[in-house]
Design goal:
Largest sheet: 7 strands, antiparallel
Low-confidence stretches: none
Mean pLDDT: 93
């Protein structure tokens, strides 16, 4: 994928798989909601005391992989350094993330039901450094 195509794909609303190394060298892989704007940072909100938060803080790096789950398949994998680990969550940023993944009424209900996460979550910001991509659109077209 071109730079513009990979950034546009990552900016789409996909559930990502976040990867981070553990002390014994095995990866922790967990699904997460995230935000990204082309040219910017990847933003993930997570529980302050979660395993992933502790591992991300310790390693200072993380990776994300997002995919299109129907043919023709496409994916973007990105990893890089954590440039901010903020011990707070901005309410507007949290609201935007909920509305990115949920219908409006469901997002409002989710935000109300989980309002306590504003004080128990942290914000992680990662600067994309290494990209891996695949787009099987043209390959799939050859067999249609």
């Amino acid at each position: 994928m071109s730079v513009a195509a990979r950034e546009a794909f990552l900016a789409g609303a996909h559930v990502a798989v976040l990867g981070v190394g553990t002390p014994d060298g095995t990866p922790l892989l967990v699904p997460v909601w995230y935000a990204y704007r082309p040219g910017g940072e990847v933003v993930v909100l997570t529980g302050r005391e979660s395993v992933k938060a502790r591992l991300v803080r310790a390693s200072g790096r993380l990776g994300l992989c997002v995919q299109r789950e129907a043919a023709p398949y496409r994916y973007v994998s990105v990893e890089g350094p954590v440039v901010a680990f903020e011990d707070r969550v901005d309410a507007a940023e949290r609201s935007a993330l909920a509305h990115r993944y949920l219908p409006p009424q469901t997002a409002r209900a989710y935000l109300a039901a989980t309002a306590g996460q504003l004080t128990t979550d942290v914000t992680v910001r990662m600067r994309p450094e290494r990209w891996r991509t695949a787009d099987f659109t043209s390959f799939a077209a050859a067999f249609s």
